[in-house]
Design goal:
CATH topology of the domain at 211-405: Rossmann fold
CATH superfamily of the domain at 211-405: von Willebrand factor, type A domain
Distance between the termini: 39 Å
CATH class of the domain at 211-405: Alpha Beta
Strand content: 25-35%
Shape: globular
Helix content: 10-25%
Length: 421
């Protein structure tokens, strides 16, 4: 039994779910968020489900029942869950207690055979370069293991992340699937881990790790933002020097569907002060002609340059925030999404209220800044009309990130359970 529909991106409205029962004999049924929506009576069956007008997390399940009504076979897919996309990936570990190492290879399969745009690897929360031979070597640790995370970007909203803990036992090959969720917590990660375990939750580990920020910018805000930041870009960069990855998304989509994402200059590592590699996610190749970023640690200057020339038509701030949140929510890092508003009337399909609820559901914190007059739909927007206000806003984002810890838990663990006091 297999669900043939691969729902990825932010989806609403009616969705047709196709199911192949294979050798599974009826009776079988399709369930949506735990409710039966239709019977599956043929080998190839399809059924429509209503996702509603606002983005929310959903689960579709194809289940086979025995004569008593007990579920004996199940296939499921998540909808609107970051990191679950059309591509399926696997980590293939080979651990040796004798050699005290684990060699991990990874592979993926995309049903539409899309080419890979970019890939990122992190080990225990720290970004690592992917070896040319694809063999990742980590020390063998049979007690806690090591958390490996691979992010695959196929362009647009088609992005998948698979994370596992490798090397937990004396078995030659062992791994357990995990998902990263940032949680705001004042104390040390070990204290949070102990508190979550005391509530009966299955937690692999809790760590600080790297951080990632995505900026969504209305194009009518670009002029004022450039004016405020003029000749102070390096100063502003230093106010938010924590993230290892910063991405910018224009809040305008003239083609009506796709919001381009541009990876900006990676922030230098605070311990080495050396620039990390810069990946252009829109082109899938390194920029600058070398293995490291050019000598320009000023990500704010780079962010502004990426936005110049983008059309100001079709302002859709709420929709862009939802799309950016879906992408950022797959990140195995501490995270924050920053919306910068101008003075455009929003033509989004989603309301700000719906988007805020969705971001809360997928554990993506939102910070809203405005370069112009107050916007009733975004009452929480902080005015940033001079360099001092913008610097304070960036410092607040830095503080927000510093107060987060990344919780690694099984994928079925609800973010709501981790975020509850």
């Amino acid at each position: 039994m297999q669900i043939l529909t691969y729902p990825f991106g932010v989806l609403v409205g009616t969705l047709t779910i196709a199911v192949d029962l294979g050798s599974t004999p009826p009776p079988a049924e399709l369930r949506f968020d735990g409710r039966m929506v239709c019977a599956l009576a043929q080998k190839l069956s399809s059924c429509e489900v209503d996702l509603g007008p606002a983005p929310r997390i959903h689960v579709v399940e194809a289940v086979r029942l025995d004569p008593s009504g007990r579920v004996v076979e199940r296939s499921a897919r998540n909808i609107n869950v970051p990191g679950t996309a059309a591509a399926e990936g696997r980590l293939l570990p080979e651990c040796s207690a004798e050699k005290k190492t684990c060699v991990v290879r990874f592979g993926w399969l995309h049903p539409q055979k899309k080419p890979l745009v970019s890939a990122k690897l992190s080990v225990d929360g720290a970004e690592k370069e992917i070896p040319r031979d694809g063999r990742v070597v980590v020390p063998y640790d049979p007690v806690r293991g090591h958390v490996l995370s691979v992010e695959l970007d196929f362009g647009g909203d088609d992005r998948t992340v698979f994370s596992e803990v490798v090397g937990l036992t004396l078995r030659a090959e062992t791994s357990t699937a995990l998902r990263a969720t940032p949680v705001s917590f004042d104390g040390e990660p070990q204290e949070l881990e102990k508190r979550l375990r005391s509530r009966g939750l299955t937690i692999q580990t809790v760590e600080r790790g790297d951080a990632e920020v995505t900026f969504v910018v209305e194009m009518t805000a670009l002029g004022a933002l450039s004016s405020v930041a003029s000749r102070k870009t390096l100063f502003l960069t230093q106010r938010l020097a924590t993230p290892s990855i910063i991405t910018v998304v224009p809040a305008n989509a003239p083609d009506g569907s796709v919001f381009p994402r541009y990876a900006t200059l990676s922030v230098p590592d605070s311990s080495t002060r050396e620039a990390r590699p810069m990946i252009d996610s829109s082109m899938g190749r390194r920029r600058g002609g070398g293995d490291t970023a050019p000598d320009m640690p000023d990500w704010m200057l780079n962010l502004l340059a990426r936005l110049r020339g983008h059309l100001s038509k079709s302002p859709r701030a709420s929709d862009a925030v939802a799309a950016a949140g879906f992408s950022l929510g797959a990140s195995p890092r501490r995270r924050a999404l920053v919306l910068v508003l101008g003075d455009q009337a929003d033509e989004s399909r989603f309301t700000p209220e719906a988007v805020r609820a969705y971001l809360k559901e997928i554990a993506v914190p939102l910070v809203v800044l405005r370069m112009d007059a107050p916007r009733p739909a975004w009452p929480e927007a902080v005015p940033v009309k001079n360099v001092g206000e913008l610097a304070r806003a960036f410092s607040d984002v830095r503080t927000l990130l510093a107060g987060q810890a990344v919780v690694w838990a099984p994928p079925e663990t609800s973010p709501a359970d981790l975020l509850a006091p």
